[in-house]
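== Sequence and structure of one protein ==
=== Format: two labelled lines per protein ===
==== Data for this protein ====
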Amino acid sequence: MPDLLTARDVESKRFSKAMRGYSATEVDQFLDQVAEDIQKYCVQYADLERYAARLEDKIREFESLKETLSGTLLMAQKTADAKEEAANRQSEAIILEAKSKAEQIIQEANAKLPPLTPEEAALRAKSVADAAANWLDELLINIAEHESLDYDKPLQGAEVKQTEPRTNEQTATATAAKPESSKEE
């Protein structure tokens, strides 16, 4: 493919003179106009090439950003899934530990208690069942609150209620005191 004409090529082109040929002045004026137009087109073409190059750079940036965001989104989803799984495992472990501790407390209390009359046993069983039901309700509420927490946000204004575990003597005293207070009512 031959090289394209430039504005300089048009300006420097000279034709031989012939009789009865075209008017040299008109040809020169036309060639000057063509040279100016070619120069303008060359400038526009260069501007468009620079503009296209900038757009291609932006496209590459956006594609890179898209890949980064996709990776970040995938990582965030995996993290959320891992946190949910860990929370579920933790809640199951807490429930198992609580059931085990409750069984242990009941066994220790039964071993320390003197024999009861059927009426006393029924009152104590009702008292223990009520306490266990209340404790289980609180545990389920705590688990529900735990599952609804957004771990990515800090807790604001939330107070953590710290309770100290009871000793076996405190538990036995509290359990023994309830039936007596029930009898007085």
